[in-house]
Records
---
Amino acid sequence: MAYIQFEHISKRFGNNRVLTDISLTVDEGRLVTLLGPSGCGKSTLLRCLAGLETPDTGRIILDGEDITDKRPAERKVSMVFQQYSLFPNMNVYNNVAFGLRIQKMPRRQQQQRVEEMLAMVELQGKENALPRQLSGGQQQRVALARSLVTRPKVLLLDEPLSAIDAKLRKSLQQRIQQIQRQLNITCMFVTHDQDEAIFLSDIIHLMHQGVIEQSDEPIALYTNPKTSFAASFIGNYNVLNGTAFAQMVGDAMTPHDVAVRPETINLLLDAPENEPDRYVLPGEVKEFSPHGNVIRYTVRVGAQDLHADVLFRSFKLFHPGQRVYVVVEKRNCLRVN
């Protein structure tokens, strides 16, 4: 039996339907991500699990118990928000110990538990610091320790790293992953960042307009999207309708859209030999832009523009107006709904 079960969850705010008949399961000890653009319903679904919102229909089961109508304090669920929500006049130690004091845990046991958590998030020596004396990353680690110290059944993280700079964000992603595995705690993580979701997750539930668009392991979701939205959101795919694709490659028209990842496209100056398992198409470079160690080219092929990602090599650059050959294996042209 799944550890967490969402059964036919729907939620409206006024005339705005935010969740529509959501059903999904989460196994114990897994880190599961709700991924999607702003307004797709991912945070609302998380808040329903936390007890901060009540679904209009459906029920939520945690560890075999129906918690749909239970108060937040009765659910044994902890939540880390994008805003750190630390008590500004309490030092680090007291912020972390707050939940234990509410539970009336003996002082000696509180101290031991707080020290364990501060060591786990690498904040030893900061016990007496106030939140304003800490960096954003340190404050977020305090919030994480405070959520874990009560040993909840489930840890919920609602875009906890979105306000942190890129380098520190990578470090905290690794720390969250390490802690989750060390404690074997069940986690649900909300983000709109596909790279973050792919790095952290055991399973990704991609959401769009209040429904689950696709659920899969990260690599499977990236390499085999099932819908046009999944292809456009996850892998920055080139998505072409069946007619446009058929005109471009000279194949029979397909009723499905066709998705092609930019990194699966090769650009060549000289015409390669035609082979039955790949398309070779003449094109013209329109523009390019650097993306770290990759250059993204926009190439006009017939009446279509394709994006191609090529490793940045200063001795091999293509320029606007240059004629090239676009080469892509047929297996990398995916039919999507």
---
Amino acid sequence: MKMMKSDRAGGLRRALCGVAVAVLAGPAMAQPRPGPLAMETHALRGGAYWISGGRSNDGFVVGPQGVVVLDAGISAAEAKMEQAEIAKVTSKPVSAIVVTHADPDHVLGLLYYPTSTPVFMQENARSEVVAAANDPAAPPAYKALYAQLVERLPRDTVGRELVTTLGGVRVVLRHYGPAHTAGDLVMYLPDLKIVYGGDLLVNYTQFPVIHLAGSSLGWEDSMKAILALDADTYIPGHGPILSKAELASRLRDEQTRREQIKAMVVQGKTLAEIEQALPDKTEDPMFITYTEGVYAELTRGFPPPNPPWNNIVKRPHG
């Protein structure tokens, strides 16, 4: 039996409190990956790697002067395992950490890297962390973690684009607008034709995961821009790597589904009616479904930016 929205939201709040406490104690789940941590490093080309087995995919690039890390995991255990995976490949120091967005499974591991390591993140992602740290309604353990994290974040953040060299590696960091979250950041390696997309790219659900401060149209624009890059390898935040053809196919599927949802909204259909007619093949219980998110956009408009934990425990509908 499917729970009413209010019952499900209450259950998610209780579950999130448990997740936050678990993060403080050690490994925790922020995405649907059961079982113990067992990270594995996969070589791409030219010193670029991606790491599977954590609560999210992470990555790193070994350059002439150092290592560029892509996302930091959710906990001390993950951050330390990530650093151990890097040490298996190179003894070079970590020159920089690039954070793709403010979800806990990508950003909380920053607490367990040296404070002297430069961090690059999009300005809206930083704002989401600060908002979470100062939100009196946030679960206490979660609020405490983000309060610690604020002191670790850069004040000089990325707006739309930053083209730079990190560790001797030419890197392009781009923000295309609200999509998965309000502060998504893509790391593009033009010399290697590789894109690290964070949760803009997920390969475990039928449709994209879009949080309350994100945008389905923004996601489409982001995909079009990413596909226009001179790249052939795309590392998602979750799931196996994607080819350009696979990414283009996922964009087409999303565009078709969004138009179907929009047509039913225009007809005056309720969310329940739309969900019955157009069920999502997979649903991550931590988040709103793609259908719910698009319905909210079309009927209520876009919400203001909000703390990351709201993406998990707040629902767009009563």
---
Amino acid sequence: MTLFEVRTVSPATLRRLELAAGELAASCLTAMEERQPWFARLPADQRAGVLLVTQTGVSNFVSWLGEPTETIRLTAEAFRIAPRDLARRLSLRQTVDLVRIATEVFEERLPPLAADREEYRILVEAVLRFGREIAFAAATVYANAAEARGAWDARLEALVVDGVVRGGEERDGRDGVLSRAAVLGWDPAAAVRVIVGSPPQEEAENPPEGLSGLRRHAARLGRSVLVGVQGNRLVVLLSEPRRARLAPGDDTIGSSGLEAAIGPIVSDFGPGPVVVGPLAAGLTSAHASARDALSGLRAVPAWPDAPRPVAADDLLPERAMCGDEMAHRRLVETVIEPVEAAGGELLRTLGSYLEGGGALEACARALFVHPNTVRYRLRRVSELTGLLPADPRDQLVLRTALVAGRLAAAERGRDAPGHRP
């Protein structure tokens, strides 16, 4: 049996403690102002809140001391009656410092009120035990507040990611995405990429921990990140570091460059392909990056040997075959239009070369030119598009671009590009 199950202090001592409660709380407040300079600078309402918590704590201590066999169930009440924003204004470290000061004042002022040596010992041990319980109660309050903030932040984060994926054009929708992201600390001027793939297995088993590695890796790379799990896909908004920020439209980084830039983040995705959308100027235009990335995720099974990660723009042929009109336009804009603008039979030569199975001599005979002329024209095509007509993968891109260009020309009522006469 413990000391508190054997005996307690006398009713007279309890009465003295009750009468001293107000003065004791005031002494705690004075000690806090003297020992913690920041406490004296708090607004009056917040210092009044601390005084209320202290008075309630003293009252609870006296009540518990009268029935020491009962569990200390009133300690958390001291924090529940505090002003709601007090826990937000004071850090846990500051609160622990205040609890330590209050406990020291209790140790100094309460034991002398004992009637004899035995009560003195009881009061000393009771103060220590009650101080420990108060500290645990404070930690619980802050832990609950942190958990609530984390849950709220997670909901805001999911709303931001969903807003970007849906890509609403209404001004209210754009403003809502920006305001929610600002609450989460997102830089509104940050350029952003959208990355999609499958969530890690750990996320399904333990959601709070499953994505912690991804967030740590993003922080080490100096990037902000917003994460959303939507069914069987993981959507990540990744900011571009200021020191290496590119202007949207100048984003020429390919899949190999992505591996070097965001490899650690990709390792936190689940199994399967990871597709990275093009750079967007900010959250209000990130829906375009999300659209391309999600289109690429649907189309990437058509390229079994695709790198991980793979840029959405490297999947333009597969996306076009899936009916992505944007991929059709991008192929025409990035391949057909530059070659067509250069003139000099480049587009016709490219079409003849590809449709002839990539045979240089056969292409030269069909066009009635020297093979070196074909080589020169194909080299110019490569300079204009960044694609090698002799490379099997680039051949697929070029052939798909020719088909898209012919369809676009047919819709405009023009001669299809790349046709032989």
---
Amino acid sequence: MNAEDVIECRVLTGFHCLPFAQYTTPHTNRRCEHEAGMTMIGASIGGRPVGLAVFSCQNDSEKASLESIFVHPDARRRGVGRGLLQAVDSTLVERGVAGVTGTWYHDARSAAMVECLLADFGWSDPVPSSTVHRGGRRLLDHVVGNSRVTRLPAGFVFDSWADLSSDEIVQVLDLREVHEMGVGLHPDGETMLSVSSETTVVLRREGEIAGWMMHHELDRETLRYSSLWLRPDLAGRGLGISLAIESARRHLGLVERIPRLFFLVVEGNDAMHRFIARRLQPGIDRSSILMRSSKALIPASSDEK
């Protein structure tokens, strides 16, 4: 075999990551630079970078997440993708990780290739995990224009994240433990993105923080509507919808500077899916289904079967 045909896959560190950075998103590159547990595996042919796989695995975790995999079009159908997946598997097995999960958009140009590659390498059949909706001014105009002015019950007021004191930020963080809040609902669960202090809305009841609509800054022009949380005893009073509408109203005031947004709804949240279809669909620019697949790396012990 010619040396120029040999595929080399290796874990990347330091400046060795730079030639491969083009093969994933800026956000993933930032995570690799600053977030513990992110690992890049680069593929080269004849010393030329041709592909990249990135996975995330926290210390002592039994599961890893395949964050991205990409092969340069000129190097496809040469076994680069299989080489990257093999390197991911062997690296994770060496670290004692029992399984790996990956997600991708159903309408991505590479979706069919990714599905075939994972299937050939023993991954499970893909299933929908959530739907990502994208929009901008048209969606904000639709939400605000078709919503009545919010009249909160007595004792409730909206506040801005920017107006919270440092002590109140600590109180918000403490709520995570009190209410056993999932990471996705909590501002401290996002380590790489800044909270949008101008558009994130806090709900107070008699001065106490009782809920929020949290936005994060994905980049200078895009907000991620990350989480809508309401104290459990206040559910069913329309306060969650009021929070969402108020946050959209504030975003609309800044839409010239921040023109894009997206949000995610998990599979199984039928009430939210129905609400979007009934109330928001006319303003949404694009909706993509996030598919999920997984692979067991270490067989379960006899005691676990």
